[in-house]
Design a protein that fits this description.
By secondary structure, the protein is of the alpha/beta class. The protein is built from eight helices and ten strands. It has one domain: Rossmann fold (3-Layer(aba) Sandwich), CATH 3.40.50. The protein has a seven-stranded parallel β-sheet, with helices on both faces. Strands 4-8-7 form a three-stranded antiparallel β-sheet.
């Protein structure tokens, strides 16, 4: 079982610096050990400054594949696209040499896109690092409480690396594509990047086992770091 220790930083800038250093070091170590590696990047606004820093780091980017922990069923040019975020903030500068493995594709359904994405994911595993956010409802990637796909998404023995997640009430608002627990835990390290007192309280002490994030915190497959700033 992973430690629940939270690494607290005095400012968000310090948080972003530490996250970028930690991810960069993990990816460099993974390339040194295996020749190639991959990184599963999360979406949202919080990680963008981390990606800005990471993109400028000297690393063997030509040997690194970048993919996503989850994606909205929207084109990469749409404002809510995680692929668009990563292309703008990470796949630039030094990191422009990295290969990108998308989850979205221009096909007729999220389920078909998820199945097409699995081929790229299978060749990218294991990850050198995974970056995750955590929602106030305890979700990670696009594995939400109450989702009809949650049990399969959290099943450590599933044969799926990627799932199409339907819209739900209250979330998600759009169809999404999400990596599964099985895929995400094939990594050298998982880093949880959180800000604000609400999310710190969510992860301190005993975590409600019914929350999806408890699966990440309670597993012993991969070490987890929790990085926080107000």
């Amino acid at each position: 079982m992973n430690s629940r220790a939270i690494e607290a930083f005095a400012s968000r800038e310090a948080l972003y610096d530490a996250a970028a250093r930690g991810l960069g070091a993990a990816l460099i170590d993974a390339v040194a050990a295996h020749g190639v590696t991959s990184f599963a990047a999360t979406g949202g606004t919080t990680p963008a400054p981390v990606y800005d820093r990471l993109a400028q780091m000297a690393a063997p980017w030509e040997r690194i594949t970048v993919t996503l922990t989850d994606e909205r069923w929207v084109a990469p040019t749409a404002p809510g696209s995680n692929e668009g975020l990563v292309r703008r903030h990470l796949l630039v500068g030094q990191a422009a040499k990295a290969r990108f493995a998308p989850l979205w594709s221009d096909v007729d359904s999220p389920d078909r896109a998820a199945r097409l994405a699995e081929a790229g994911l299978a060749t990218a595993l294991p990850f050198g690092a995974v970056l995750l956010g955590v929602g106030a409802d305890g979700h990670f990637a696009s594995l939400f409480p109450g989702s009809p796909l949650l049990a399969e998404g959290l099943d450590p023995e599933t044969d799926r690396l990627c799932l199409a997640v339907p819209p739900g009430d209250p979330a998600p608002d759009l169809p999404r594509i999400s990596l599964t627990f099985k895929a995400l835990t094939q990594s050298a390290v998982i880093m949880l990047l959180i800000t604000g007192s609400e999310k710190r309280l969510l992860l301190e002490g005993p975590v409600d086992p019914s929350l999806p994030i408890a699966a990440i915190l309670d597993q012993d497959r991969v070490p987890v770091r929790i990085l926080w700033a107000e």
